[in-house]
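#structure-requests
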Amino acid sequence: MISRTLGERLRRVAEQFPVATVTGPRQSGKTTLCQMVFPEKVYVSLEAPDQRSYATSDPRGFLAELSDGAIIDEVQRVPELLSYLQEEVDARPDPGRFILTGSANFALLESISQSLAGRTALLTLLPCGREEYQKFPNCPDELWETVWLGGFPAIPKRRMDPWEWFASYVGTYLERDVRQLVNVVNLSAFQTFLELVAGRSGQLLNLSGLGSEVGISHNTARAWLSVLEASYVAFRLQPFHANLGKRLTKAPKLYFYDTGLACYLLGIQDPSQLRRHPLRGALFESWVVTEILKSRLHHGQRGRIFFFRDHVGHEVDLVVPRGDTTVLVEVKSAKTVAPDFFKNLSWLDNLAGFPAHGTAEKVVLFGGDQEQRRSAATVWPWSKIAQYDWR
């Protein structure tokens, strides 16, 4: 087992709130994290049919047996339990008494907002970031192998074959979660939808186009995408909006939380295939975006990262608010720095009214290995992404 960055934040919030809730995709390491941080606590999983039945039929009796506190895993399986948990912690609000985990985003958040508002800290654990993954033996130090593997900890921890593991992950978790969250009649069409979403990672979202390719309606495509977001498979990166006197893109961009899963769905069976793949640039961009997102979320901060694009095609891959500084990031998978890498960064930095306050910091994050401090921007290598201060 390796230590996770979020562990420190989890320990701190448990000293202040009676409940701490850790959400995130299945197999991201939530259970392991909670048990490492709180080894003395009783552990109960609501995935187990007997425990789930007990919590559903007799919630007060279930919680009475856990009166000294516990780690309750996959709590979204019995959302009504949270109302009874509210009574329990109101009567005895000891800090860190209950630690909850959950994998279904909107179902769990809706229940928490109704029952545990003000009583729980809410944290998100995504698959391992680069800094965490390097703690495993034989961590890859090559770019495309890193992107191809993604960040799920079970693969290096159990020394699993990535292709076999992702096949099991899709069949065991994603398809089951789909049936729990929305009524998908045609599972084959949903699998096609999954593959198409993976192929559009890093692109502007076009739900109508996605739906027409699969043969489903716009509303069905929207519902299915919501399932992927609820299961922490994909997310929408919102465009940056400011009073710049420009016509800006309003459509979000679509990304996968894990590039290893995206590569599996695209049929990329090994890193050498990825090096020649037409989507390698988009997948590298996805990896960078999620690494920065992990850096912020795993330190207990809000995600709050954006992209910038106007109607004539000026685009900056990432806009990262950081206190009084706004970090502008251009992502390039090439190993050699070219002059046009800096063009859009300089354009946005020189735009009247940007940033609204503070200063802008320009970064080119690329597929090479050499750090450079240029006048136009800082050139930062992919392998040191965890060493940059994104917070």
